[in-house]
Design a protein that fits this description.
By secondary structure, the protein is α/β, with parallel strands linked by helices. It has 11 helices and 5 strands; from the N terminus they run αβαβααβαβααβαααα. It has a 5-stranded parallel beta sheet, with helices on both faces. It is elongated.
């Protein structure tokens, strides 16, 4: 039996995977996406998006990739795990992901290969873009390499376009690197959702999942309880809504109300506080 079909849903509405189709575009997420697209098209170089854990950075990264990848004139790649141990490993990765033939064996040789690739892209009318998620784990050496890439430019634009999505801790590290901060073309901080946006996000995801019922699956007091419990962070909202719908199905209830939310919160709190043998 498809449990979600019992609620009139065609699929899971609150999966925690970063599916761009389920990205609720709050005012800030929509503004960030549009400004990033504009900066990339203008080939301004480095862009940095900062936000707390669970605020939706990875989903925004995937959405940006989907929007740009379907257009002609762009070669876009994503780094999901930038925990490179050395500059050489980073350069080797870049050459591989962009499909650049390697010449030589040293780090300098690889940098020259990459620079020539970028120049070739300009001649072909192509714009190479690199999106880096989890940017807070970038090492100082890799940050310095990224800064160096920004020296690759024509008189009018940067050869490589970069977007770094990172947690708040990266901001303090960047502030200590003035020569890096000065090169950031777009700086954007994503904040948690407001309460009315939490309601809109839940309704949006239910709609994408195929819900067309007349009755609300989440009551107004449930929305308020979810907002209070999560602080407006999209990932915790998604997880809590998933647990609430699961509770709804298993207990044969018609709607998620504040009581259901509170029971789900209490259950998660009990799990987190359970003693470890």
């Amino acid at each position: 039996m498809d449990l979600y079909a019992a609620l009139g849903l065609a699929q899971e509405p609150f999966s925690t995977t970063a599916d761009p189709a389920f990205m609720y575009a709050s005012h800030e997420h929509r503004e960030a996406l549009l400004r990033l697209q504009l900066s990339l098209r203008q080939r301004r170089g480095l862009n940095v998006v900062i936000g707390d854990i669970g605020v939706g950075k990875t989903t925004l990264c995937r959405k940006l990739y989907d929007e740009i990848a379907r257009e002609d004139g762009y070669v876009i790649r994503v780094v999901d795990d930038p925990s490179f141990r050395s500059e050489f490993q980073f350069m080797n990765y870049l050459l591989h992901t962009f499909g650049v033939p390697r010449q030589g064996r040293s780090g300098y040789d690889f940098k020259e290969c990459f620079r020539k690739f970028l120049l070739d892209m300009v001649e072909k009318g192509q714009t190479p873009i690199l999106l880096i998620d989890e940017g807070q784990i970038l090492s100082p050496a890799i940050l310095e390499m990224i800064r160096m890439f920004l020296n690759f430019e024509t008189d009018k634009f940067k050869l490589l376009q970069l977007v770094i999505f990172a947690q708040l801790e990266l901001l303090e590290r960047l502030r200590a690197r003035r020569n890096f901060m000065d090169r950031i073309a777009l700086r954007y901080i994503l904040n948690p959702l407001q309460e009315h946006e939490v309601a809109e996000m839940i309704a949006f995801r239910l709609g994408v999942a195929g819900y067309q019922g007349e009755r609300a699956l989440f009551t107004d007091d449930a929305i308020h309880a979810i907002y209070e419990a999560t602080g407006g962070l999209p990932r915790p909202i998604t997880m809590l809504c998933h647990n609430a719908l699961e509770y709804l199905i298993l207990n044969e209830r018609e709607a998620v109300d504040a009581e259901v939310v509170e029971r789900c919160v209490e259950r998660e709190a009990a799990f987190a506080a359970a003693p470890v043998a």
